[in-house]
Amino acid sequence: MRRTPLCRSRRPFLAALVATGLLGALAGPPETGPDAMETVAADANTATVFYYTKTKNWSSTYLHYAPDGGTWTTVPGTTMEAACTDWVKQTVDLGSAAGLAATFNNGAGTWDNNSGVNYALGSGNITVKDGVIAHSDPCAGTEPAEGNKATVYYSTATTGWTTANIHYAPTGGTWTTSPGVGMEAACTGWWKRTLDLGTATSLKAAFNNGNGVWDNNNSADYALTSGTSTVKDRTVTKDAADPCAAVEPDTEAPTAPTKVTANATNTSVVLSWDAATDNIGVVKYQVTRTGGTKGTVVTDIGSTVFSDTGLEEKTGYSYTVKAVDAAGNTSPASAAATATTGEKASDPASGTPLGTDPRKDPIYFVLTARFHDGDSSNNRGGSQHTKSGNAANNDPMFRGDFKGLVEKLDYVKALGFSAIWVTPVVLNRSDYDYHGYHGYDFYKVDPRLESAGASYQDLIDAAHAKGMKIYQDVVYNHSSRWGAKGLFTPTVYGVRDSQWSWYYDERNEGFEYDGLTVEPKSGKAYYNGDLWSTAEPSGNTCLNWGKPTGGKSAEGYTLYNCQWPSPTSGMFPKALYHRCWIGNWEGEDARSCWLHEDLADFNTENTTVQNYLIGAYDKYIDMGVDGFRVDTAVHIPRVTWNRRFLPAIQERVTQKFGAEAARNFFVFGEVAAFVNDKWNRGSVNHSAQFYTWKERKEYSADDEAAALEQFTYENDQGTGNQPTSTNAFLDGNNYHTPDRSRFSGMNIIDMRMHMNFGDAQNAYGNGKDSDDSVNDATYNVVYVDSHDYGPNKSSERYTGGTDAWAENMALMWTFRGIPTLYYGSEIEFQKGKKIDCGPSCPLATTGRAYYGDHLAGSVTASGFGTVGSASGEVANTLAQPLVKHVQRLNQIRRAVPALQTGQYSTEGISGSMAFKRRYTSGSTDSFALVTVTGGATYTGIPNGTYKDAVTGDVKTVSNGTLSVGAPGKGNLRVYVLNGPGKIGADGPYLK
After folding, report:
1. For 882-943, where are the E strands, in sequence order?
2. Which structural domains are found in the chain, ordered by start?
3. Are 156 and 187 in contact (CB under 8 A)?
4. What DSSP letter does each residue of 205-247 carry, written as one string?
5. Region Disordered: start and end of each range (predicted)?
6. Which residue from 784, 779, 781 is spatially nearest to 763, judged by alpha carbons?
7. How many Å apart are CA 581 and CA 563, to the nearest integer?
8. Cβ neighbours for 703, distance < 8 A, ≥ 6 positions apart
């Protein structure tokens, strides 16, 4: 059938690359070699088009073309001449055009017009082979001469390139002309080229797709040797086996999954199992459900836990699981697990995450139990109420709640924050557990935080209705000292005699601890009768159970063995919990031992533990939270995060809400490195940025062995051989598409800036110094102080002064990263007070004091950073100078995309805290020049009209230079190219 050529002047292939983000997805062209930056032929106004004829087998070939912006040749076009075997060519004069649109035909009515969209070609040497465009000369002396040879295999499985070129220079020789020589398709996902090295035995190389997308090993180029090498995901394997060699087909099926358990809650079932084994590796599991009226349902799942929701009430279900490997071999079915659902929950999870880029949302961090009390009936003081001094202040540790937070969402919105980080919500159990980090029942929201009409779901839904996100603090590393309900809880020894009966409650078989309900026998909400026993439990491994230790308590009471849980007491099964104390905070034991006596350390390399935690946090994902702040992330091996927990989060969000929501589900980890160096005392395994990267090699299939292997390998690699990134940095004045292909899924709290915020200049300098080692520092969560520490590991809330606070905020709200404020800092709440002293002092005297008194009255927000109305004490709070400051900073940041998601650079800039930022996407192109406190001069910037978002000042740049006078401490200037001008009203600092 005759195909009529399409003669539209368009560049569909290039446009597709831009749309899919492939352009710039890898580092730019290599900087080494004399021709490294050359991307087109030397004669830029011509294009030599080579066309592959072997597939078509035409007797003659015509090129029908139109230079960009020009007219098409007369059909059928110009005759192409023979070039070399299977190739014809034609050189086209482009004039001033940058490229051409083209089709090919045999002169007799048979056309190749790229499936109806024409070929979009550039300049220089261009090949068109079976629909694939590349830039090279296929006829340029490719026959190898005698001498040393290097056979290079390059994997495009990750990048998805449809062709590959190698640009190289033998050691002591010159570089090929960009883009190098074309590589041959070797097998699926692999390209191959044998190179003549002459007398050289090694070479430098970079790779590209022929259309401007490069892989140059993070600007370091690849060092290869003679012989056979493979390059896959930036890893070079010397003397490698042929990756395309025929292999015996995998016919061995995985083993059947074991220990399948099913537990029903209302109309949901959580299914978990131990991982199957396979000679190569399991890639997925098939869960088969029978029961109910919907018949048999088969679901593919990537992890070893599955949450089945929306089932029928009071119905029995049976589940079996099969394992599947990459070859499609399927294991036998597991033994069946059954569960019967109950009644449908009266308050079903219904939330949906907002799903937008988290960098757009400044974060307000609250200790929920200390923020605002909306319902006094759920207040609880606990066993330390009197001892702590809280009773004397009428200040129970559990005082704030979700109802109080819902009531004051408009306060947070009026400050300008669109995300709220809340402390852990799971049921806690400890003598002092208001903060949420002593989890006991990970599947249950702590009732001390909930009220009628103000459940956790209600908070999520209420926040979303106001356009605000909820980030939930989550703990994977440890449970309370009393274990984790549903996984393991220890039985401890206690004699209910005249000494200890005040502490050991009598067992009440019909009562279940929830932290809120008062147990009638003891009169306590913190009842512990379910934990204590005078009879030795079956299978006990704790030595000298119940025998006196010979010591006395602080009160003078007799102490008994196995009276208190500890890692070395034998009271915790080693399969589920670790049994050691941390001895070296930069050693391997920091990832596999207890932090504190009240934090029982999970064995997170155990499948049962993994399934328990994944199933628990799936529940909160389903409720619609927008992200997780990960507590004590550094105390779990990175390989465990990368293999188990992070993929499980992504899988669940994708399953429930789609891929876009999963991409923007914000996970940020606490990797507490309390030092001022780039790498935590030289230990990469204990440095925050380390957790933003995927693994660089394969480890043992056994998670415990893999954790040790990973620790040793990365320690041996050291700080000088870690991956680097340009994702946070501009390329000159230009934004480039970040390469997130090696991102682990975990972002980080910027501990280095936090530790140095005693002075904004120090924080700025330290932050910049670390950014190339973070996968993408534009996602860093940045704060001055928190519920744990102030700058320089201070144990006090920040007390640097109002001017210093204003300066810190000005930097945080304009520099890369996500600004975060600990509750009350907007009025310097509790400045200089000890942040935390446990139950040894009243909470009212600490940095975790109750904030609700400052929120009394009513407030409505008319927008982010603007107050609609306010009365009572909250009106006075909103009138404070730092409040005005943070409101306007939030207004400015929300109006300038470059300040939210832009990359930055200090190139060509003088000034102590001065930088330029840019973000480009679609029709958005936001370019801003920022200086904090001091003056600055910017050179080499685009010409045009710049408007200051703070003052409205207008500067016209015609020579690439703009100078700004010093605005003063806490003040700043934000000159935006073609910007909106002044944003907001002058305040105490921004004016």
Report:
1. 903-905, 909-910, 914-921, 924-932, 936-939
2. 46-134 (2.60.40.10), 148-237 (2.60.40.10), 258-340 (2.60.40.10), 365-488+566-731+745-895 (3.20.20.80), 491-564 (no CATH), 896-977 (2.60.40.1180)
3. no
4. EEEE-SSS-EE-TTTT-EEEESEEEEEETTEEEET---TTS--
5. 334-359, 372-395
6. 784
7. 18
8. 605, 606, 607, 639, 640, 643, 644
Residues 6+ apart with CB under 8 A from 523: none
CA separation for the pair 673, 679 (Å, rounded): 9
Question: Are the beta carbons of 780 and 746 closer than 8 angstroms?
Answer: no
Q: Each residue of 320-374: pLDDT tens digit?
A: 999 999 888 999 999 999 999 998 866 445 689 999 999 999 999 999 999 999 9
> Count of H helices and E strands in the chain?
16, 54
Among 209-218, 223-232, 455-464, 515-524, the minimum mean pLDDT is found in 209-218
Residue 51 and residue 131: Cα distance in Å, rounded?
10
Whether the Cβ atoms of residue 638 and residue 710 lie closer than 8 Å to each other: yes
DSSP, res 439: E
pLDDT digits (tens, 9 = 90+) for 435-492: 999 999 999 999 999 999 899 999 999 999 999 999 999 999 999 999 999 999 999 9
Please say if the pLDDT value at position 77 is more than 90: yes
H helix or E strand, kind and range, residue 320:
strand 316-325
Phi, psi angle pair for 813, to nearest 5°: -80, -10
439-445 and 469-475 beta bridge pairing: unpaired
- Residue 809: other Cβ atoms inside 10 A: 26
Note whether 733 and 916 are within 8 A (CB): yes
* Torsional class of 189: left (φ above 0), alpha (ψ -120 to 50), beta (otherwise): left
**Is residue 769 over pLDDT 90?**
yes
User: What is the distance between the alpha carbons of residues 260 and 241, in angstroms, rounded to a whole number?
Assistant: 40
CA distance 242 to 727: 33
Please determine, for residue 644, whether its predicted confidence score (pLDDT) is greater than 80. yes
Return the ∠ at Cα 167 (arms to 166 and 168), rounded to 5°. 110
Query: Six-digit token pair at 892?
Result: 């400015």
Confidence at residue 44, expressed as pLDDT on a 0 to 100 scale: 54
Interatomic CA distance for residues 861 and 871, integer angstroms? 12
- How does the average pLDDT of the chain come out, rounded? 90
Q: What is the DSSP string of 617-663?
A: HHHHHHTT--EEEEETGGGS-HHHIIIIIHHHHHHHHHHHH-HHHHH
Q: Which residue has the tokens 């429930």?
A: 656
Sequence-ordered list of residues with C-beta below 8 angstroms from that of 116, at least 6 positions apart, any chain: 6
User: Which residues is 325 bridged to in the sheet?
Assistant: 282
Token digits for 850?
């109750």
For the ranges 291-305, 797-811, 835-849, the lowest mean pLDDT is seen at 291-305
Q: How far apart, in whole angstroms, are the C-alpha atoms of residue 659 and residue 638?
A: 24
Confidence of residue 254 (pLDDT cuts 50, 70, 90): very high
| CA pair distance 301, 67, nearest whole angstrom | 51
- Among residues 119, 116, 115, the alpha carbon closest in space to that of 103 is found at 119
CB atoms within 10 A of CB 410: 21
* Residue 853 phi, psi dihedral angles, 5° rounding: -60, -30
Residue type at 508 in one-letter notation: N
- Residue type present at position 871: S
SS3 content of the chain, % helix, strand, coil (to 5): 20, 30, 50
E strands along 449-521, which residues? 469-475, 478-480, 492-493
Nearest partner of 912 among 989, 819, 807, judged by Cα: 807
Amino acid letter, residue 282 = V
Q: Of the candidates 667, 672, 605, 599, which has an alpha carbon nearest to the alpha carbon of residue 634?
A: 672
Nearest to 878 by CA among 466, 368, 414: 414
CA distances from 898 to 514, 774, 917, 921 (A): 47, 19, 6, 11
- C-beta of residue 479 within 8 angstroms of C-beta of residue 600: yes
Distance (Å, whole) CA 269 – CA 298: 15
CA distance 808 to 66: 57
